[in-house]
Each structure stands twice: as structure tokens, then as C-alpha cells.
Design goal:
Chain A is mainly alpha-helical. Chain A folds into two domains: 38 residues, no CATH class; 266 residues, MetI-like (MetI-like fold), CATH 1.10.3720. Helices cover 69% and strands 0% of the residues of chain A. Chain A has twelve helices and no strands. The N terminus and C terminus of chain A are likely disordered. By secondary structure, chain B is of the alpha+beta class. Chain B has a domain of 225 residues: Dipeptide-binding Protein, domain 3, CATH 3.10.105. In chain B, 28% of the residues lie in helices and 18% in strands. Chain B has 16 helices and 23 strands. In chain B, strands 8-9-10-1-11-21-12 form a seven-stranded mixed β-sheet, with helices on both faces. In chain B, strands 13, 16, 17, 18, 19 and 20 form a six-stranded mixed β-sheet that branches. Chain C is mainly alpha-helical. Chain C has a domain of 196 residues: MetI-like fold, CATH 1.10.3720. Chain C contains 14 helices and no strands. In chain C, helix 5 runs antiparallel to helix 6, helix 5 crosses helix 8 and helix 8 packs antiparallel against helix 11. Chain C is elongated, with a radius of gyration of 24 Å. The mean pLDDT of chain C is 81. Classes of the chains: A mainly alpha, B alpha+beta, C mainly alpha. At the A-C interface, helix 1, helix 2, helix 5, helix 6 and helix 9 of A face helix 1, helix 6, helix 7, helix 8 and helix 11 of C.
Chain lengths: 315, 603, 314
């Protein structure tokens, strides 16, 4: 086994990929089962997609849908059910400690959680994806430096790094989303680099080189379309990771400030001993919605990957 | 409901400052004839427990908010049992337990009175009697107070308690950045002019103004006397602030930050034989548990023997459990007030119309229903209706948005182009006033309060920006006047004359305790007059006038009277059995703390 | 292999230097540390002496690289300095908090292995049968359930509702109580990891079970159970070992959240609180120790891997 530093870095990166890699591993159905490649997405995939469309629609159109205000209270003094009321026809998910509608808050909270997920993955894809591709294609010192930076980033406990960055700047929605985007640069960049490395050896790239195509053109026209597919699958998984990470921050009271709600914050609001005993729905309902969404993203991401037979890339 | 540790530490510091003031408050137990002896004031609810075997049982206090069930064990005449570890759940960890330099919070003060003794102590009516001091006597016009110490008392490290020790403590307090804020405005700038050693056991204090109520100052943090040797060492090495050395009934043993602080019985305590026969507990352990519910649950699970709280939902839980005799409960709401506080230093709130509009737009009823869950009494002023100083004519206006509308319109039309320096922007936008609501966090409860104030009231006429700050930054900005409005908790000195710390012109400086920065010479005159030894009737009248004055300034929007509740396991006895040297019952509970030397555990 | 370890160590050291520089730099930008040391008195002209004194005591009168150098010098001698918040030595804070987190992480790993091995073996033994499908379903779910959500659910069910486990962390009432109060937090961390382990083990085992020496053993009449646990398990552990390092990182992130839910005064919670307090000597020490441990663990895993797998050694 050769041991140039760069390979060691590769190794190191491969064994510290964080949650994305976890998703890789768990859903790896590449078990020899007679070698039949599964080339259909299946009903589960469509259920997952339907759920995602449903939740995104609700979140996007919350202002024009007949959904209650997230901050409106329904106290008994105004004829409402009061604080900590159980789920009912009027309040599907019950009410919270300030007599606010938990269903409405879950939907409004989805706006923040989903935005953070989208933005983080977008930033990670844009920066990490392109850096990884360039790095994987041109190799050399650029690759080494970048790989070391990725390694440093991956050596921090992610949540600690997120807290550090946000306390350094502020806790606005943009900062939180960008921070999680920055955190996703290293893992996404690592995978995009790996994918590029693999495709860079293929005939069509060699052929393009042979006819004298410029590196920029090869990257854009030959490599990008091929790298895009595994990246798309990774994007779905990455969104799940970002949503969970925002939840973790919110859970520590360290996500978006100024009374902005997200799923993590809702769960945190409801997790007190007394609330869990008297009004478990305040925490449990957002947990269910969060769980379904992450599950759907993971599942859809896996299916996309399997469908395009991407898994061999991560080997 | 959960309060983050950070938030509690903030409250803590405030409380301390409050307690410093509260400590300053009360009628002269010794010399002062100025004390209004309102029998109703300040009596904490008490258990019908009694105390040390041979000591005469003190008469139970009758003015109870919560009455403990009679202790069955004691009906049989069983005396106190020696032994046991008293495990107390406190609402936050304390950064240091140095009474001269640490701004002690309620938990800090609770630890403090375990290891330190105060020179004087409160009686249930809010007057004070000598405690560690033998006597506290004024001159004729209350400008010199002579404190005489008891002979033969030593600190836990063997240092003798003498005049030099008291001077050393005062000197440290006077110079301390934070604690000194409550000292320096009321004493000469040079320590040498403020205190003097007369002989080995006698010290004279020289307040700036006649102060008939000075002895109460010595019943709180400023009256705790620490070993001068330790103070000196701690000044050199701040880590020693974690290992307090006093004269108190318990000796510091060990401290693991955020986990447990342990004190063990002081068999040489000066009060043994003088106040009670013995100290019954082997040890006292303080467990900081910022999650209020956890403290309650652990009390129920017998993992704690005692805990304190101000959070409404846990007060309800304690009340329910006490009704079933599962625990015992002592609670009192005549201490602090919860309110929103308005800074008059900057636009827009330098204009009374903006302050009035905010007051009228405040959803106070909803606050009391949803945040306080209707367990707290709504507050119109800093006195409860059963206080002798209560002014029935003073009503806290709120929930009246119709009156706010024309004020905001008028204000914005007239001054809309001024700049709000806190937001660094114009005071009005689109016919609404722009303000920043500052609160300490990260904290769920504080966030809920901010959301409620904004979404259910203020947002009609105000564009409210939240500014959630860490406690230290929050205090810093409030202390330097960099806020528009915040949520706060203070007041509640047993003798209201001591709340002067918050209210006078001299404490409205750059960094001082008059946070809203209202300087009203008329108010100052009233406050100073109250300390000149006036009659009870005059004193009451002055306090009522001050309350009126505060109300008309529109700087505090009172929500309710904070409840300090203490829950105990059923094996705890003597909660309110503390006595003075003369055998009188002492005040059972002060803001979040109580004496422990008389407690014993049955079984 | 010596060369490999040496290269690794060089990498490790440069990594730790980079991490410490980033952390040190960002913490210093975070705000005026003096304020954390002295409180509001910083702005009070009357305490100018104290401010100057504290500035000198904490080396704040030096420039950033100088301070970093001084700090690094102390660290190399094993001294992480004193906390800004209360003057306590960082070494004692770390010494007190870290063992709790290590116990938590250790318990979680043990639990994960204990859960994963039988589940993985049984799933592999009957691949694509009902048990296998059910575990696939469940493990997929556990991966989608964030630590904080799982923690809240476990706390709700086992501590609040059924009251099987205590509501708080209990340290000083004997080892049993300590472990018992650590059980739920450790389980919260362990379940998602167990899910990963189980999948890995299942996949590797299925591959191993098709190899010749297994078929040989079976044909010699060795019992099914003995083949599974005796012959097939050990060669199927490689990927398992690889993810061990990977999970250390996930454990640390999880510990922040889990220690918060279950009120364990461990290193994770200390980091969060210290960052909030701008108490950066504590943050630096913990980040550095955790990162160092994480990287070192990865190195050990690699070495172990090389030792165990003849193919890699060759």
C-alpha cells in the first residue's frame, strides 16, 4: 500500500464522512442476491415524493391557505381551548403552552426548516461540488491543499463548528442556512471529488482530451452531467442532514433568533418533563412531521441513487 | 417550562442586586424608631414546626400564604434528630460565593447564608434584630451607626471575627465593581470616610445621608462577613471565590461546578447554645438544576429534600402535591415584581406619550393567563394589596389599545424623524414606533414572553425587534442604557425605603442601578425623607407617594407579583423554625433563600 | 507500516494545529474576553486598575499570534489555562466533565455492538426473510430519527411515562445508579449507530457466508449457529471496524444534544455553555481534545485494520 500523504488524506476523508456516509452504508442493498439490478423506483419512492410535495406545498402556501397564525393565542378568556389543550377538530395537533395552535406552528415552522435544508444543500453543492470536481480533475497541489482543508473541517465536531460560526456572526436565518451550507461543503466536496476521479479515467474523458478539449470544457460538458446524477441523490440526503442539523441547533436554543420557529424549536419547546406528561403532543407532533420528512428524503435519495446505479461510486 | 441556565444566572445577578437593596431595606431593628411596624408586612408563611428540643418553640407565624400541615412526627413530642444530608435543588449554578465581590443570585445567597452569618437578621414583620452582631446602634440623627460584635467568634479558618474583619469586608464591597453599585452611592467615596474601627469589636458606619433604616443593610449580602484572610487570598486568586470561609453554621467542604457544592456541620458555630442546642444536619448539598421541572420531579422522587422556584407551572405542581400531603410548601409573593421596563434615555421612550402607548398596548391580562397561569397575583405597583404601603389609587394601566392609537399617531407626526439609537434607525415607520425588546437568553420562557407581548399587543402600534442577549451582555446593555424596553424582575425590599437603589438620581449615572434613568428631584426628596426617622404614618404616606410617582412616570409595566415557592420532602422539619438570639422567630423566607441551621430530618 | 504511522502522526499534529488556530482565532474574534472576566465593570472608569491587571494576567495586552504562541506553549506543557468565567483551571474542568462523556460514549458503543451483532447475524442468516425485512425497515427508521427527537421520545416513554429510569443523571450513589441514569442517554446515542452496524454486518456476513470455507464447514456438519458466530462473524468485521472511527464524530455531535436532554454535566454541554459564555480557554481545550481523540481513533482504526486484514498488509 503506497502511502503518499494525499492518499492518507483520502483514506481519512473516507472514514469520516459524517451522516451522508451513514446513509450510504445503511441503505446499501448491494447484497448479492443473484445479481438482479433493481431498476424501478417502486411505490415507496412515490409515497415519499408525495409526502415531500405535500409538506413543501403546505409550507410555501401557508400564508394563503386557511392555516391559523403561528403566533396567535387561543386562551380561554377569548373562548379558545386554552393552553396545553389536547388535539381536537379545531386544533388538529392541540395547543401549546401559550395556547397557540401546534398544527399551525408545525406548518409555519416547516418554512424555516425546509429553507435551511434547501439553502444549505445549494451552497454545499455549488461550492463543495465545484471545488471537488476541480480538485478531482486537476489534482496536484490544489487537490492536496483542498483535501487538507476538507479534512480539517471534517475533524471538527460539526455541531460545535456550527455553534462557533453562528456565535461569531449572528443567528439570522441567512447565517444559519449558510453555516450549514459551509459545513456541507467538505462532505459534498469529498464525494464530488471521488466521483470526478472515477469519471476522469473513463474513455469519453480521455477521448475528449485526445481531441484537445480544454479542461474547462471537459469539466462542464463531460464530467458535470455525469457527476450531477450522484450529486442529485446526495442532495436529497444532504437536505435531510441539514434539516436535522438545524433542528439540533434549535434544540440547543441556538438556531434562528427573534422568535422564529422551526421544527427543532417546536420540539425543544415541548420537551419539558411536565409538558411531556401533560401535553405530549406539543413535542411529539412536530417530531412525527420531522421524522416523516427526513425519512422521505432519505428514502427518495436512496432510490434515486439505486436507480442510477450510483452506489459503486462511493467504493 | 424550562429556563436556561444562562437566563437564570441573569436573574440571579439581578436578584442579587435586588437583594442587596432588599438587604438594605427594612426598619432599624435596634435603634430605628422609624420602622413602620406593619404586622402584615413581610411575614412569610410558616410551618407549624418547632425547633431545637429545649428551646422554647417559637410562636408560629399566623400570616400564611401557604400553610403547612402540622408535622405529625412532632405531635408525639419527638425532638429534632441529629444526622442526615439536606439536598437542595437550586435554580442555577453560581459563579463564585464571595459576598464582597460576587453579585450573588438567589442560589448564591442561599449558599451564602449557609456558610456565612449576617450581622443582623429579619423578623417576620421586616424589622431586623442583631444576629452575628451583638448590637447595632445609631446616633441621634442616624448619620453614624455603631456595630458591636460578639466576643470569641472565629471564622472556619481560625481567623478571629473582629472589627478589622468587618472593615476588610466593607472595603472589598465598596471597591467591588458590581456589588459596589449598591454601596458607593450611599457612602463617602473614600472608604476611610465611610467606616471606622473604634475598638477591637466595634465599628462605625457613616452613611452619606441620615439613614434610620441602615441595620437592614446588614441582614443581606452586605451583612455577610467573610474571613479577611480568605478575602485577601481570593483577591489574589479568584479561583478561591469558589471556596468560601465564613463563621456560619456550615463549613465549606467541596464544590464541583455544575454538579454539587457541599457544606458540613460546624460544631463550633457560635449560635450553638445561644440560639439552639445543636446543628442537626450532618451536611448540606446544593445541586444546581436549571430545569425547573427536574427540580420538582426530583423532589417528588425524594432525590432532593428541598428546592425553590418562581416558575408558575412548577408552583402549581407544588401546590397540588402539597394539597395531597406529598410534600410541604412554603411560598411568598411579597418579594419581587415581574414587569417590563422602559428606558427614558433615548427616543422614542424619552417621550412620555410613547411610554404611555406601550403601556396601554400591553396584553397584561393575557400575560397573567398564559405566562403566569393565573397563579400569581396581578401587580399594580411594587406592593401587594396586603402591604401597609399599598396605594389603592395606583392602578397599572394596560389592555387598552384604543388609548394607544391616538398617542402613537400624535408622536409619530411630531417626532417621527428622530433616531432611535438602539436600533440606529428612525423612531417611526409606517405610522408605527420602532422599538427593540431586549431579553436574556437563550431561554424558552423569555422567548414566550417576548412573543406574547409582541404578537398579542405591542405589534399593533410598534414594530418590535427582538434582541435576545446572554445575561452578561444583557446586564451590560441595560446598565449602560442601551435598550428601549426589556423584561425584568426586581424590587421587594421588606422595607421599601431600601428600593431607593433603583429609583434615585444618583443611581442614574453611566453605570448604575436606576435602569430607566428617571431622575426626579421630587422623588429623591421623598426617598431621603423616608430615612430620616419619620413616624409610621408618615413613612407609609411617603411610600404611597413614591408608588404614585413611579406610576405617573410610565417606566414600569407591572405584570404580577413573583412567587418564591419552596418545596420540601415530608421528612424535613423546622423550615420556618429559625430564631433570633432572643428567641424570636426570624423571617422564614427571603427572595429565594432561607436559613438552614434549624432544619432537621426525621426518619 | 511504521512509515504509514509516522506519516499519519505528522498529519495528526498538523491537523490539530490547524484546528487549534481556527478555534483560537474565532474565539478571539467573538467578543471582548475582558467582559467575560470582569463583567459590566469593564466600562466603569473606576475599575481601570482591575481591567489593566486582568489584561496582563490573561495576556490580553499581547497581539493574537503572540497570545496563540503563549497558549500553545502552556498546552504543550499540559496546562490549558484558567476559565474566564470563574478562574477554575481548565484542566480540572476537563478532568471532571470529560470522563462523563467518555462513559456515555463508551456505553453507547458497547450497547450498539451488543444490539447490532445478534441483529445483524440473524438478519444475514435469513436474508430477505421476514426478520431481515423487518430489521431493514426499523434500522432505516432509526437513521431518519434525529438524536434529539429520539432522546425526547425515550425520555418521554421511559422516564416520564413509565418511570423506569430516573429523570436526572445521578453520579454519587454508586456505580449502579450512575449506569442506570446513563442508560437512556446512551441508548439514544446507541440506537442509530446500532442501525448502521447492523446493516454493515449483515451485508458483510452475507458475502462471507457464500465463501468456500463456510460452505466447507457446513458440509463438514458444523452447526449453523457455530458457523455463524464461530467462523463467519470474525472475517466480516472489517467494515465494522472502519465505521468505528466514523461514529466517534457522530457521537460527539450527539453528546451535545443528549447531555442537554438528560442534564448530564458532560463535555458536550460544557462546550455549548462555554461558547455561549465566550469562555474560550475551556472551548479550546475541549475542541482540541475531542478533535485529537477523534483523529487518533481513526489512526488506531487504520492500524488495526492493517493488522487484521492480510490483504491490506500485503
Amino acid at each position: 500500500m503506497e502511502s503518499t500523504p494525499i492518499d492518507i488524506i483520502d483514506d481519512q476523508l473516507d472514514s469520516s464522512g459524517g451522516s451522508v456516509a451513514v446513509a450510504d452504508v445503511v441503505t446499501d442493498d448491494s447484497v448479492p442476491q443473484g445479481g438482479v439490478a433493481k431498476k424501478k423506483l417502486g411505490i415507496g419512492f412515490w409515497i415519499a415524493v408525495a409526502w415531500l410535495i405535500f409538506i413543501v406545498t403546505l409550507a410555501v402556501f401557508a400564508p394563503i391557505l386557511p392555516i391559523k397564525e403561528a403566533e396567535a393565542s387561543f386562551p380561554t378568556s377569548r373562548g379558545g381551548p386554552g393552553a396545553r389543550a389536547a388535539p381536537s377538530a379545531d386544533h388538529w395537533f392541540g395547543t401549546d403552552e401559550s395556547a397557540r395552535d401546534v398544527f399551525a406552528r408545525t406548518i409555519w415552522g416547516a418554512r424555516v426548516s425546509l429553507t435551511v435544508g434547501f439553502v444549505a444543500v445549494f451552497v454545499g453543492m455549488l461550492v463543495g461540488g465545484s471545488l471537488g470536481m476541480i480538485s478531482g480533475y486537476i489534482r496536484g497541489w490544489f487537490d492536496r491543499v483542498l483535501s487538507f482543508i476538507f479534512l480539517v473541517l471534517l475533524s471538527f465536531p460539526a455541531l460545535v463548528l456550527a455553534i462557533l460560526i453562528t456565535s461569531l456572526i449572528n443567528r439570522s436565518l441567512a447565517t444559519i442556512a449558510l453555516t450549514l451550507g459551509i459545513l456541507s461543503i467538505a462532505p459534498i466536496g469529498r464525494l464530488s471529488r471521488a466521483a470526478t476521479l472515477q469519471f476522469a479515467e473513463r474513455e469519453f474523458v480521455t477521448a475528449a482530451k485526445a481531441i484537445g478539449a480544454k479542461p474547462g470544457r471537459i469539466l462542464m460538458k463531460e464530467l458535470l452531467p455525469n457527476v450531477m446524477i450522484p450529486m442529485a441523490a446526495l442532495g436529497l440526503l444532504g437536505m435531510a442532514v441539514a434539516i436535522v442539523a438545524e433542528g439540533g441547533l434549535a434544540f440547543l436554543n441556538l438556531s434562528v433568533e427573534g422568535g422564529t420557529i422551526s421544527w427543532g424549536k417546536l420540539i425543544n419547546e415541548g420537551r419539558g418533563t411536565r409538558l411531556l406528561r401533560d401535553a405530549p403532543w406539543i413535542a411529539i407532533m412536530p417530531i412525527i412531521v420531522l421524522f416523516m420528512t427526513v425519512l422521505a428524503l432519505n428514502y427518495a435519495g436512496d432510490k434515486v441513487r439505486d436507480y442510477f446505479d450510483v452506489k459503486e461510486l462511493s467504493v | 417550562m424550562r429556563i436556561s441556565r444562562v437566563h437564570l444566572r441573569l436573574l440571579a445577578v439581578l436578584l442579587v442586586l435586588g437583594l442587596v437593596a432588599a438587604a438594605c431595606g427594612s426598619s432599624g431593628g435596634d435603634g430605628g424608631d422609624a420602622s413602620p411596624s406593619g404586622g402584615d408586612d413581610g411575614t412569610d408563611e410558616a410551618a407549624t414546626d418547632d425547633d431545637g428540643g429545649d428551646d422554647a418553640a417559637p410562636p408560629p407565624n399566623t400570616d400564611l400564604v401557604e400553610t403547612l400541615p402540622p408535622d405529625d412526627e412532632e405531635d408525639g413530642g419527638d425532638g429534632p434528630v441529629k444526622g442526615g444530608v439536606y439536598r437542595i435543588g437550586i435554580e442555577a449554578e453560581v459563579n463564585g460565593v464571595n459576598p464582597t465581590t460576587s453579585a450573588l443570585s438567589a442560589p448564591g445567597l442561599w449558599m451564602g447564608i449557609t456558610v456565612f452569618d449576617t450581622l443582623t437578621a429579619y423578623l417576620p414583620d421586616g424589622s431586623v434584630v442583631p444576629h452575628l452582631a451583638e448590637s447595632v446602634e445609631p446616633n441621634e440623627d442616624f448619620t453614624i451607626w455603631t456595630v458591636t460584635l460578639r466576643e470569641g467568634i472565629s471564622f472556619h479558618d481560625g481567623t478571629p471575627l473582629n472589627a478589622d474583619a468587618v472593615v476588610a469586608n466593607f472595603t472589598s464591597q465598596h471597591g467591588a465593581p458590581l456589588v459596589g453599585l449598591a454601596v458607593r452611592p450611599f457612602f463617602p467615596p473614600e472608604v476611610a470616610d465611610a467606616i471606622a474601627k473604634v475598638d477591637d469589636l466595634t465599628v462605625e458606619f457613616f452613611p452619606l445621608d441620615p439613614d434610620a433604616n441602615f441595620p437592614a443593610t446588614l441582614a443581606g449580602q452586605l451583612g455577610m462577613v467573610a474571613s479577611p484572610a480568605w478575602l485577601e487570598a481570593a483577591a489574589a486568586d479568584p479561583a478561591l471565590d469558589q471556596e468560601p470561609v465564613g463563621t456560619g453554621p456550615f463549613v465549606f467542604e467541596s464544590r464541583v461546578l455544575d454538579s454539587v457544592t457541599r457544606f458540613v456541620r460546624n460544631d463550633d458555630w457560635w449560635g450553638i447554645g445561644l440560639i439552639q442546642d445543636d446543628i442537626w444536619l450532618d451536611a448540606v448539598e446544593f445541586y444546581p438544576l436549571t430545569d425547573t421541572e427536574q427540580r420538582v420531579e426530583q423532589l417528588f422522587a425524594n432525590e432532593l429534600d428541598a428546592m425553590h422556584t418562581t416558575v408558575s407551572s412548577s408552583v402549581i405542581e407544588l401546590q397540588d402535591a402539597a394539597a395531597l400531603d406529598e410534600i410541604t410548601l412554603v411560598s411568598d409573593d411579597r418579594t419581587e415584581e415581574s414587569f417590563a421596563m422602559i428606558n427614558t434615555l433615548h427616543p422614542p421612550f424619552d417621550d412620555i406619550r410613547a411610554r404611555q402607548a406601550l403601556t396601554f398596548a400591553t396584553p397584561r391580562d393575557l400575560y397573567n393567563e398564559l405566562i403566569a397561569e393565573n397563579v400569581n397575583r396581578p401587580a399594580d405597583q411594587m406592593f401587594t394589596p396586603d402591604s401597609p404601603y399599598y396605594n389603592p389609587d395606583v392602578v397599572q394601566e394596560a389592555d387598552d389599545p384604543d388609548r394607544a392609537a391616538p398617542l402613537v399617531e400624535e408622536y409619530c407626526a411630531e417626532k417621527g424623524t428622530e433616531i432611535n439609537p438602539v436600533l440606529e434607525g428612525p423612531v417611526c415607520t409606517d405610522g408605527k414606533i420602532n422599538i427593540e425588546l431586549q431579553y436574556s437568553g437563550p431561554s424558552l420562557v423569555q422567548t414566550r414572553i417576548a412573543e406574547l407581548l409582541r404578537d398579542e399587543g405591542w405589534s399593533q402600534f410598534f414594530n418590535v425587534t427582538f434582541d435576545e442577549l446572554l445575561q452578561d451582555d444583557h446586564i451590560q446593555q441595560v446598565a449602560t442604557g442601551l435598550y428601549n424596553v426589556n423584561t425584568w424582575r426586581q424590587f421587594g425590599a421588606p422595607d421599601p425605603s431600601r428600593d431607593k437603589v433603583w429609583l434615585m438620581c444618583r443611581t442614574a449615572e453611566a453605570i448604575a442601578l436606576n435602569w430607566p434613568r428617571v431622575c426626579d428631584p421630587g422623588r429623591d426628596e421623598l426617598i431621603l425623607q423616608a430615612d430620616t426617622g419619620v413616624s409610621d404614618e408618615e413613612f407609609v404616606q411617603i411610600q404611597q407617594d413614591i408608588v404614585q410617582n413611579m406610576n405617573e412616570a410610565y417606566t414600569y409595566i407591572f405584570f404580577n407579583h413573583t412567587i418564591w415557592a419552596f418545596g420540601y420532602g415530608t421528612n424535613v422539619n423546622g423550615q420556618c423554625g429559625m430564631q433570633s438570639v432572643e428567641g424570636e422567630p426570624l423571617r422564614c423566607v427571603e427572595n429565594g433563600r432561607q436559613l438552614i441551621n434549624q432544619i432537621w430530618l426525621s426518619e | 507500516m511504521v512509515k504509514m504511522i509516522a506519516t499519519r502522526l505528522v498529519l495528526l499534529v498538523s491537523l490539530l494545529l490547524a484546528v487549534s488556530m481556527i478555534t483560537f482565532g474565532s474565539m478571539n474574534l467573538l467578543g471582548d474576553p475582558l467582559f467575560n472576566i470582569l463583567g459590566p465593570a469593564v466600562d466603569d472608569p473606576r475599575s481601570a486598575d482591575k481591567v489593566a491587571q486582568a489584561r496582563a494576567d490573561f495576556n490580553l495586552d499581547k497581539n493574537l499570534p503572540h497570545r496563540y504562541g503563549l497558549w500553545l506553549g502552556d498546552v504543550l506543557q499540559g496546562d490549558f489555562g484558567n476559565s474566564y468565567a470563574n478562574g477554575v483551571s481548565v484542566n480540572s474542568i476537563v478532568g471532571e466533565k470529560l470522563p462523563r462523556s467518555l462513559l456515555l460514549a463508551g456505553m453507547a458503543l458497547v450497547m450498539a455492538v451488543v444490539i447490532a451483532i445478534p441483529m445483524g447475524v440473524f438478519a444475514a442468516a435469513r436474508a430477505n426473510k421476514a426478520f431481515d425485512k423487518a430489521t431493514t425497515f426499523v434500522t432505516f427508521g432509526f437513521v431518519a430519527l434525529p438524536n434529539f427527537a429520539l432522546g425526547v421520545i425515550l425520555y418521554y416513554l421511559f422516564a416520564v411515562r413509565w418511570q423506569i429510569f430516573p429523570l436526572k443523571y445521578i453520579e454519587d450513589e454508586g456505580l449502579f445508579m450512575k449506569l442506570k441514569s446513563m442508560f437512556l442517554p446512551a441508548l439514544t446515542l446507541a440506537l442509530p449507530i446500532a442501525a448502521v452496524y447492523q446493516r454493515l454486518l449483515r451485508t458483510d456476513l452475507i458475502t462471507t457466508l457464500q465463501e468456500d470455507f463456510i460452505l466447507m464447514a457446513r458440509s463438514k456438519g458444523v452447526s449453523r449457529r457455530k458457523v455463524l458466530f464461530g467462523h463467519a462473524l470474525r472475517p466480516s468485521m472489517f467494515s465494522f471496524i472502519t465505521v468505528f472511527g466514523l461514529n466517534a464524530g457522530a457521537l460527539i455531535g450527539g453528546a451535545l444534544v443528549v447531555e442537554t436532554i438528560f442534564n448530564i454535566p458532560g463535555a458536550g454541554r460544557e462546550i455549548v455553555e462555554s461558547i455561549i459564555r465566550d469562555d474560550f480557554p475551556v472551548v479550546l481545550a475541549l475542541v482540541l481534545i475531542i478533535t485529537g481523540g477523534f483523529v487518533l481513533l481513526n489512526l488506531l482504526v487504520d492500524v488495526l485494520y492493517t493488522v487484521l486484514d492480510p490483504r491490506v498488509r500485503a
